[in-house]
C-alpha cells in the first residue's frame, strides 16, 4: 500500500459524471480536503452580502447561463484556497477545476492551478482522473439529480423516482439545482468539450499521471477503481 505524504488529486468529468461524489468519498477515506471549486464559487456568487458587488453580479450572470466564470477571477480565489489547504498540511482533492487552459497553466499575469499544485505538492504527487460518460447519460443524470438543501449532498436520480422528499443523510429538504435544467446542462457540456478537453491533452504532453475511468457504473464501483489506482493495490 502507498505510504501517504500529501497528494493532490484532480477529478475531471462532464456534468453528471460524479466528480463531487467521488472526490468526497476519497476525502473521507484519506482524510483530505475536498475542494469543490464549483460549489465554492456558487457560494460566493449567491451570498446575499455580495449582491451589490459589480464583479460578483457579472460572474453570477455567467454562472446562471451555464458559461464558465472569468478565468482571472477564478484563479485569484482558487489559488489562494489551495495555498491555505497546503499550509494546513493536508492533501487536496479538486473537482470542477481547472476548467480552461489559462486556469490550468496560467500566463505572464496569472499563476495557473497546476503551477500552484506543483509548488505545494510536487509533480509526482499529483494524480489526475478523468470520468467519462456519454452526453445523453450526463443530461439524464443532471435532470434527475437532487441536492440536499442543508448538507448539500448529491442524491442519485433513483431517489427522485421513488418520490423521497428528504435527505437520507441529514433529513434536510431535497431540491433541484438551478443549473440542472436541460438547456443549461447542454451548454455546460459544450463548455466542457471546448474548454476542458484541451487541458487533458496538454497534461498528457507534460507527463502528468492521467487515469481514465468509465463513469457509467454505480458510484461505489467507480470509487473502488480510483482507490486501487491511488493505493497501488
UniProtKB/TrEMBL annotation:
Sequence similarity: Belongs to the adenylate kinase family.
Keyword Hydrolase: no
Location in the cell: Cytoplasm
Keyword Transferase part of the UniProt annotation: yes
A GO CC annotation given for this chain: cytoplasm
A Pfam cross-reference name: ADK
Subunit structure, interactors included: Monomer.
EC number: 2.7.4.3
Broadest EC class assigned to this enzyme: transferase
Organism of provenance: Candidatus Wolfebacteria bacterium RIFCSPLOWO2_01_FULL_38_11
Lineage: superkingdom: Bacteria
GO MF annotation, one: AMP kinase activity
Family matches, as InterPro entries: Adenylat/UMP-CMP_kin, P-loop_NTPase
Protein name as it appears in the record: Adenylate kinase
UniProt xrefs under SUPFAM superfamilies: P-loop containing nucleoside triphosphate hydrolases
Catalytic activity entry: AMP + ATP = 2 ADP
This protein's UniProt keywords: ATP-binding, Kinase, Nucleotide biosynthesis, Nucleotide-binding, Transferase
Amino acid at each position: 500500500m502507498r505510504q501517504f505524504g500529501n497528494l493532490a488529486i484532480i477529478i475531471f468529468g462532464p456534468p453528471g459524471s460524479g466528480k463531487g461524489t467521488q472526490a468526497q468519498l476519497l476525502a473521507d477515506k484519506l482524510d483530505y480536503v475536498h475542494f469543490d471549486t464549483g460549489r465554492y464559487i456558487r457560494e460566493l456568487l449567491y451570498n446575499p452580502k455580495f449582491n451589490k458587488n459589480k464583479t460578483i453580479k457579472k460572474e453570477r450572470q455567467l454562472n446562471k447561463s451555464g458559461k464558465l466564470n472569468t478565468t482571472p477571477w477564478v484563479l485569484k480565489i482558487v489559488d489562494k484556497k489551495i495555498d491555505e489547504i497546503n499550509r494546513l498540511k493536508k492533501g487536496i482533492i479538486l473537482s470542477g477545476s481547472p476548467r480552461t487552459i489559462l486556469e490550468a497553466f496560467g500566463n505572464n499575469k496569472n499563476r495557473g492551478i497546476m503551477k500552484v499544485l506543483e509548488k505545494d505538492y510536487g509533480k509526482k504527487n499529483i494524480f489526475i482522473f478523468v470520468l467519462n460518460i456519454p452526453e445523453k447519460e450526463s443530461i439524464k443524470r443532471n435532470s434527475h439529480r437532487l441536492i440536499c438543501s442543508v448538507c448539500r449532498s448529491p442524491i442519485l436520480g433513483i431517489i427522485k423516482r421513488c418520490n423521497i422528499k428528504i435527505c437520507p443523510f441529514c433529513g434536510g429538504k431535497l431540491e433541484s439545482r438551478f443549473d440542472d435544467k436541460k438547456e443549461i446542462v447542454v451548454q455546460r457540456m459544450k463548455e466542457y468539450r471546448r474548454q476542458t478537453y484541451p487541458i487533458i491533452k496538454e497534461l498528457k504532453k507534460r507527463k502528468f499521471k492521467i487515469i481514465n475511468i468509465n463513469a457509467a457504473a454505480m458510484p461505489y464501483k467507480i470509487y473502488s477503481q480510483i482507490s486501487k489506482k491511488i493505493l497501488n493495490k
